[in-house]
Amino acid sequence: MTEPVVVCTFGGTSQAGQDETEAALTLGRRVGEARGGELRWLVLGSAPVELDAIARRHAVVAVDHAEDAKLDTAGPDARVEAVAQYAAETQPRLLIFNQDFDSRRIAPRIAARIGATAVMNGLGIDVAETGGLHVISAAYGGDTNVVYAPDPSRPCVVALMANAVVAEPAGGSAAPPETRSVALDLSAVEERIEVLEPARTEGPRLEDAEIVVAGGRGLGSPENFKLVETLAEALGGMAAASRPLVDEGWIDSSRQVGLTGKITRPALYLAVGVSGATQHMAGCAAAKTIVAVNTDADAAIFRHARYGIVGDCLEILPELIRAAAQMGAG
Amino acid sequence: MRIVVCVKEVLDPDAVGAYALAGSLVIGDDGKTLTQTTIPTLMNAYDEQAIEAALRIREAGVECTITVVSIGEDATTILRHAVALGADTVVAIPPPAPDPDCHAVSALLSAYVRSSGGADLVLCGRQASDDDQGVVPAFVAESLGVPLVDIARSVTAEDTSDPQSLRVTRVTPDGDEIVRVACPAVVTVSSELGEPRYPTMPMRMSARRVEPEVVTADELGLSGADLEIRVGTVRQTVPTVKGDCEFITGDTPADIADRLVARLVEDRVLQQK
Ligand SMILES: Cc1cc2nc3c(=O)[nH]c(=O)nc-3n(C[C@H](O)[C@H](O)[C@H](O)COP(=O)(O)OP(=O)(O)OC[C@H]3O[C@@H](n4cnc5c(N)ncnc54)[C@H](O)[C@@H]3O)c2cc1C
Ligand SMILES: Nc1ncnc2c1ncn2[C@@H]1O[C@H](COP(=O)(O)O)[C@@H](O)[C@H]1O
B124 CB less than 6 Å from ligand 2? Predict the structure, then answer.
């Protein structure tokens, strides 16, 4: 077991979660091949249903399964300690997480705990001529890309952004992975953060929506956001918003799309009155078809859009609602 | 209660975005630094909101001192802004070498907190809007051995007369989560906290001449190895977005809407029922 590349996942039973896992495994395998290091998959807590098939598809050498009742309660302290103990034993060179809300709060702490370097917002990893890693990462919300060279004498923790890497199976027929249960001792862990009121998980998740209608500041007032909701409903999709609308309290933060909101990848993303700042696009650039309605023909959003309408969203929205309803009826 | 707020000076992200959109963002000769002098610098917006969070704790009746600390080439302007907002003390730590990485910054910040008598609460922004990394608070928390509560929309003392523990509302993808954490702790603040106040004219006037207290790495007992760059920057580039937008036009909004829907049905993005 020499300096393995480890992909660490936890929770996530959704399709999007599985796709992201496969993207991370693809990246991990490539780095392992380029610099010599077996690919291991550390699963914290309950395992994904298709664990075996996924592991084989990506030529994972070993699946390390870390199970403990404390890992299923999703407390950050148990997870940090579990990965730190695992790292002490396995000595990974590179530890890859899928970047999401939960990993963002544990990955840097794990790095600090094990003396590793940390790079978030990862878009890819190259192996430099010197054998060291070059981690490509988004900065300024995506307005620039930065190539970081983490100190090769330390392990490196990378959080990979959603949709940054396209999953690709290893090809050929890989041997089934060795499966191992990781010995942990979490008895000393007591979560220091006490949850008084948990977040309520109700209804469908924006991340899973096939059709998203997003409103931006161009809507002008909170009342007009109802048009966005009505259109979303008429199309059988979900309503979302840019950050200013969330900051102003027009809509709940669980509907914010972007760098500091949700990463969506619907079949259709219809954005009205959204300028298309990179921090917003970070959450929707992977949509299959983007449609934008904006009064400003030079708005950034049109660079990402497949179809554009230059016009007042307050005039277009009612007509889109009508057309969508007719489509449903016809 | 002693509150330390960590603030970073950054290039205005909106201006960076505007230049990037116009295709005129300039990377310097070193291949990695944004050198445009026309882009204004300002206090990272989340950090300004972290100061706001501290001020709200004080206004809720908690007896506290608010110290604002920044590591940067010349942090005087943003630290004066912090004073105008209501900070009691401002501290500038000059970086021992240019462009310190998150490891060096975290080492300096935690050494400062430790050597200045500790803090009951360290407030940070959820991320700096230049590198967007959001790792410094985690490193500081681990270094100080205290819990990290991230992405807060509100931070209050459970008992204002005896602030031993905090009640924090975290913004999560599934809605708000309310947690309790004992002090000392590191808390990161998100934009949902709301607009930070605007400094009053008299406050701005009196902050104008304030000189931040300067603390050096030497004084913090840190040297070479503690501060070595562990994550070096090789280069920075501006990605290009190739647009292929087809504009839908028509005589009336109804006409435009019908054409768009027809195209989406044609593309099988929408299904006719
Ligand atoms: C660190 C950081 C993180 C961030 N994270 C996020 C994030 O996660 N999500 C996010 O969305 N933003 C985020 N932002 C903010 C982002 O940079 C933009 O400021 C924001 O996305 C702009 O929102 P907007 O497009 O609704 O508003 P604006 O930029 O004000 O755009 C409004 C648009 O509406 C158009 N318009 C005006 N009137 C009409 C009309 N009648 N009809 C049609 N169009 C009209 C205008 O031409 C304009 O293009 C972040 C910023 C930073 C610095
Ligand atoms: N140079 C710095 N000086 C003071 N605080 C900083 C500095 N860099 C980062 N921070 C703090 O750490 C937070 C996250 O920064 P980052 O990890 O760089 O995204 C910021 O919002 C600040 O609160």
Answer: yes
